[in-house]
Amino acid sequence: MAGNGSQCPSRRNDNTKTIASQTPQPTPREQRTAGNLPLPVPKVRSGTATRGVGGTVHNVANYIIHENFNQNNFDNDIALLQVDTPFQFSDSVQPISLPAQGEATPVGTQAVVSGWGVTVNGGTEYSSDLLYITVNIYSDSDCNDKYYADYGGLFVGDFCAGHAEGGIDACQGDSGGPLAAGGKLVGIVSWGDQCALPDRHRGVHTGQLL
Asked: Which residue ranges does the record annotate as region Disordered (predicted)?
């Protein structure tokens, strides 16, 4: 989460699966894409709000990359990971529902995004604590207008969330973090052009969850 100068896995109800984002250009929120996932796939840590400390570490037994993931333009930036030991639900580990197929989140909806990313635009140090912010869902037309000149617009299923006035935003290192609204996982942090700048490109989220 970043200011302009100043993950917590998201799961289906099956307690062995977690949804993950890949990382697109131009400004990756992480440093991996579906096309170059390291083998073995990294472990998943659940049940802690401190980066790399505490909770339970799960080995990844299997993973499925979206069948239409495009390595060249990073369309369909999503994968499904299956861990070898089930998540144990508790006060700090809970599943989250998915929207119905074809269900869109209304423009103007306030959603919560969380992650351990950098806290300053252009920064290099990740947060040690899980942070969250509230952002607004923007229309596809508004988002396409912002991204068209430099990137040719958005792909089908992608959408933007943020603040027109800037100030707070998801940022590098937040890729794969959940965007939640109304008790549902409505998106996954994917990419963006810098972070938290006023009247600039808002953060892009993958909405292809099914």
From this structure: 1-52
